[in-house]
Each structure stands twice: as C-alpha cells, then as structure tokens.
Amino acid sequence: MPQIIDGKAISAQIKDELKEKVASLKEAGVSLCLAVIQVGNDPASSVYVGNKKKACAYIGVDSLSYELPEETTQEELLSLVADLNGRADVNGILVQLPVPAHIDEDAVIRAIDPMKDVDGFHPQSVGALCIGQKGFISCTPAGIIQLLKRSGIEIAGKECVIIGRSNIVGKPMALLLLRENGTVTVTHSKTKDLEEVTKRADILVVAIGKPKMITRKYVKEGAVVIDVGIHRNENNKLCGDVDYDDVAPICSAITPVPGGVGPMTIAMLLQNLVESAAVMR
Ligand code: NDP
C-alpha cells in the first residue's frame, strides 16, 4: 500500500508552529493583520474567505474583512487596495480570485504592495522566485514542497513532472522543484505523448483541472503522485485530477482529495503572513 500523504495533519502541525511564532511576536510587541477582500458573493469564494479568516483567528492574528458588492468598480477596488497598502497595521492583503469579469485581475494583483503580497501572485514575487531571491511564494506550490519534505520524500536529483502550467500552480511549482534540485519537466495541453513524459516521473504533480483524468497508464510504478485538482463528482463528493483508486495501488506515496494539497494552501498563506512581520520590520 502507498504512503498516504496526510495534508490535514501536516497543515495542522504547521498552523500550531505558526501559533507559537505569533505568540512570541506578540510578546515582542508585533501584531499581525490580514486584510481579505471579496468582490461579489460567489458561494465557493465565500467558503474560502471564511476558512482563511477562521485560520487567522486560530493562530492568533487579526483579519479585516471587506465584502464588496458585485458592481464594485475597478477604481473603487484599487482605491481600497491603495488604502490598505498605506496602513501600517495591515501586513497582508488578499483579494479573493476570481474577481468579476469587469475588473482586470492583473491590475489588481499589480496594485498590491509586494511587501504585503501574501498570495505570492505579484510579478515582483514571481520574479524573485525565478531568480532565487527572497519573496512571497504562491501558497499551493509552497504547500506541496512542505508535504514532500515533511513526508520524508527526497526531491534532489529526482525526475519531477508537472502537468499544468498555470501562473498559480504549474509555473511556480516548476521553479520550486528546481530550487530543491529536482530535474523538472512541465507538460500542458500541447504536450505530445503526455503518457510517455509522465511515466518518467519519480514525482508527478497533477494540476490539470480535469476530474480523474490521470489513471495508472500515466504513472510509473513506485512514483510519488501529488494531486492538486479539486472537483465535485456527480454524487457531490470531492475528487481530484487523479483517479485515486486506480493509481494508488501502484505508487509509493499519494495525496488524497480531500485532505491532501487543499489544506496546505491556507497553512502557507498564514506562513507568508507571519513571514511578512519579518519583512516589514
Ligand atoms: P488551469 O485551468 O489554470 O490550468 C490547467 C493546466 O492544465 C493548463 O496549463 C493546461 O494546459 C493543462 N491541461 C489541460 N488539459 C490538459 C491535457 N489534456 N493534457 C495536458 N495538460 C492539460 O488550472 P489551475 O492550475 O488553476 O488548477 C488546476 C487544478 O487545481 C484545478 O482543479 C483547480 O481547482 C485546482 N486547484 C487547487 C488548489 C488547492 O488549493 N488545492 C489551488 C489551485 C488550484 P494549457 O496551458 O496548454 O491550456
């Protein structure tokens, strides 16, 4: 049987470590605050925002919540971001994506002060990651590195294949695995013979956004499989991009959905926030 990589337990461990760090920062007179902005009332976004606020409360940091109506203009949103950039009591700013179609998402990301960019989406944060400098790192891929390290899985020298090249998962994932000395290949919808490439992977990270697409024909026996996908199946149950029941028996370690990558994203957001205290001092 494969090792089941337990994202719930690992994220709980990280949150407990952060809670202690926050307590010592408080003793040193440093308090932390995350500003969370949601435009519109998309139900999935409301759940994510609620979970982020709860997680802040758990580790002892404050959160400010801005629930703006769907018809908020880009100027109004950018003006709020500018106000929050200027506030010394706000360490991190998060705009829940996606924003409504009339707002330019890139303009909003660029407007956030890179020193408060706890999502790690600002071009300056991405550029810093690319050239190996300090900066905030996109939370989902950062969480995957923690899952691997804390599960005792060596990355250095391994063949790492990523399916998907999005700005928030695939590309930063490639840079992080490279930083950890993996040999990295990124695949996408135009990749020829995907199966042949993914079968080379010692570590396969799947972020395609297609429910259960990855079956065992894409996976080398003994590989580590990380499933980033989140979907609801026909019975309203959560599933990933990997067909877990088909793939699990042949791999050495695998993340379940739910309970794998998902819980790590918020844990890494909190880690970025706590690190921002050091950045701002
Ligand atoms: P995107 O839709 O932005 O990117 C999907 C990528 O998969 C693209 O690069 C696309 O290629 C590639 N792709 C699509 N079809 C194929 C195919 N048949 N063969 C090879 N590659 C293909 O998705 P995201 O990266 O944003 O998210 C991926 C999944 O992860 C989603 O299910 C999402 O819900 C989930 N997710 C989960 C998070 C978590 O916290 N657990 C956080 C973020 C995302 P191309 O570029 O050529 O179009």
Walk me through this protein's architecture:
Helix content is 41%, strand content 16%. It contains ten helices and eleven strands. The chain has helices at residues 7-27, 43-59, 74-86, 105-111, 123-130, 139-150, 170-179, 194-198, 244-247, 262-280, and strands at 3-4, 33-39, 62-68, 92-95, 159-163, 183-187, 203-206, 224-227, 231-232, 238-239, 253-254. The model has no long low-confidence stretch (mean pLDDT 96). Bound molecules: NADPH dihydro-nicotinamide-adenine-dinucleotide phosphate. NADPH dihydro-nicotinamide-adenine-dinucleotide phosphate (NDP) binds at residues 140, 163-166, 168-170, 187-191, 194, 207-210, 228-230, 241, 261-262, 265.
Which features would summarize this protein structure in a list?
three-stranded parallel β-sheet, globular, 41% helix, 281 residues, 11 strands, alpha/beta
Give a brief rundown of this model.
With 281 residues, the protein is an alpha/beta fold. It has helices at residues 7-27, 43-59, 74-86, 105-111, 123-130, 139-150, 170-179, 194-198, 244-247, 262-280, and strands spanning 3-4, 33-39, 62-68, 92-95, 159-163, 183-187, 203-206, 224-227, 231-232, 238-239, 253-254.
* Average pLDDT, all residues: 96
Question: What series of H and E elements makes up the topology?
Answer: EHEHEHEHHHEHEHEEEEHEH
Low-pLDDT residue spans: none
Give helix % range. Answer: 40-55%
Instruction: Please indicate the percent range of residues in DSSP E strands (runs of 2 or more).
Output: 15-25%
Task: Give me the secondary-structure topology.
Blueprint: E1 3-4, H1 7-27, E2 33-39, H2 43-59, E3 62-68, H3 74-86, E4 92-95, H4 105-111, H5 123-130, H6 139-150, E5 159-163, H7 170-179, E6 183-187, H8 194-198, E7 203-206, E8 224-227, E9 231-232, E10 238-239, H9 244-247, E11 253-254, H10 262-280
Parallel strand pairs: 1-11, 2-3, 2-4, 5-6, 5-7, 7-8, 8-11
Antiparallel strand pairs: 9-10
NADPH dihydro-nicotinamide-adenine-dinucleotide phosphate binds next to helix 10.
